[in-house]
Structures are given as structure tokens and as C-alpha cells.
Amino acid sequence: MALSKSEKRNRIHLRIRKTISGTAERPRLCVFRSNKEIYAQIIDDLSGKTLGAASSRDKGIVAGSNKSETAKLVGKAIAEQAVKSGVESVIFDRGGYLYHGRVKQLAEGAREGGLKF
Fold first, then answer.
1. Is 20 among the domain residues?
2. pTM for the model
3. CA nearest neighbour of 116 among 90, 92, 83
4. DSSP H helical segments within 44-101, as ranges?
5. Alpha carbon of 106 to those of 21, 43, 46, 52: distances in Å?
6. In what order do the strands lie in the sheet with 28-33?
7. Structure confidence by residue, pLDDT tens digits, 72-81
8. Where in the sequence is the domain holding 54, given as residue range(s)?
9. Residue 109 · residue 74 · CB < 8 Å
10. Which of 3, 30, 82, 111 would bridge 87 by S-S if both were Cys, CB 3.0 to 4.6 A apart?
């Protein structure tokens, strides 16, 4: 029996997480994408702390004309939080999603905001 879309994504995500881990110097930028919203977190896996989070549901983020533009705004917002807390470089965790569309726009927005990865 074939895997469903979500089961396939979870397998890919677990495979990625075996190799990617965030540290205090270089935390992990984790992305979650639902059908309507997009969420990003900066996580230090060694201490188990979330250093910052942004989503398309935040009050400060005005939704763009489409979901891709909104994702870019979320990327810029998470980059602002990271730079404010002293983080310049992160490891990008695409969460099992293809690096395309909204995930790519979020990454480009984070790079424009000053993050390096």
C-alpha cells in the first residue's frame, strides 16, 4: 500500500533530522507549512530552547497579495528576531517539504533579513 502525502513528508523529515541539529552558535531554522499559513522557528536543539518564532498569523505581519509573498514577510520577520537575539547563521530545516514555492520564498526573505545559510 502506498504512503499518503503526509506519511511521505514525515519520512523525509525524519531522514533530514537525523543529520541536521541546531546548536547555540548555529541554531536550526525550522519551517512548517499548512494549506493556509506558514510558520518558522529558530531552535537550539542542544538546550531544547526556541529562540524565536514567526508565522503568517502574527499581528505584525500583514498578509501579502498571495501566500508566497506572505511567506517572504515571515522570513524577514524571523530574520529580524534572530539578528536581534545575536544569531547571524542558521541551519535551514525545510521540514520535509520541497524547496520550492512558499518554503523557498521564506528562505529568501530570511536571507534578505540578514541570516546566512
1. no
2. 0.92
3. 90
4. 67-84
5. 20, 16, 24, 15
6. 49-55, 38-44, 28-33, 91-93
7. 999 999 999 9
8. 26-113
9. yes
10. 82
